[in-house]
Prior knowledge:
By secondary structure, the protein is α/β, with parallel strands linked by helices. Helices cover about 45% and strands about 15% of the residues.
Amino acid sequence: MKIAVLPGDGIGPEVVEAALPVVEALGLPWELRFGEIGWSCWRRGGDPVPEATWRLVEESDGGLLGAVTSKPEREAQAELDPELRGRGLAYVSPVVQLRQRLDLYANLRPAADFLGSPPRFDYAIVRENTEGLYAGFDVADVHGELWELVRRHPNAARSGPEGVRVALRLQTDVGTDRILRFAFELARREGRTSLVVADKPNILRASGQHLRERLALVAPDYPEVAAEVQNADAVAMRLVADPGGFGVVVAENLLGDVLSDVAAGVSGGLGLAPSGNVGERWSYFEPVHGSAPDIAGQGVANPLGTILSIAGLAEHLGSRDEADALRRAVRTVVARGEHVTPDLGGGATTGQAARAVIAALG
């Protein structure tokens, strides 16, 4: 299998370089092909995802991403090569580009307890990746029909069109049904018997009701999985107070983003959090943490999120036994605490932590 490896920037190259030896240690039949993505591509070429990288992706069976930097538009323009300025180039996050162009509609974020002995929880959060409040309808030009819609709000009326910004939450039958089915199929495949849809139907009544209606249509196809809608804020509290009570949690884009970071914090931190972006024809996996440029090059970045992302990619491509072995090795290293990075209270370097995982596979 051909795997596109995109180390990115910041700590991305460090964690990827440290993690990749586990591929050989597991004997995975992967041909690793490397490509560029991220901030340096933007600065010198005006696009964080070069055409050569798109070709690499098209020719591969899956991908591994390290981390990429994203900055606000003003900073992005300031760091662009002087010869490219003034050409109307706009920075678009490479993660957003990958998700939209490849229709990677499901963001899978496992949440396992790496700190408890015995582990207190093991569940998965499924985040819809293409709609919701991240659909891109975040507008400053509030005129016409949109103004007629929002002017009824007293603050909008007092501010006028020029003083109003609007973000729209998009939900469609197609997007809602396929993320629900993805979550149900995950529950069925992993033998999980409960599924919670996290939303705010008591406040977002129209879109919340739409979600409940689509759930009522899809759920009967999975009678072995008990499904219910719960308020997202209550789910957030339960993720901290009673995480063992969950099997699969599914949510729209923004809410899923927030809940998955709560889950990562309870699981041991972002350094232990893997994720997958899954589509019908291509998928890639990456650690949840960002590019952390403030610690880049210091050798202290945690590689375990990347290693666990390799496990997720391996399982996705059919190597379930190897994936489980790798997760057990990570759990062993964290439990021993001798070779973990500073974010987990240890003094190991990035490379030492990764080599400890390989030794634990032994």
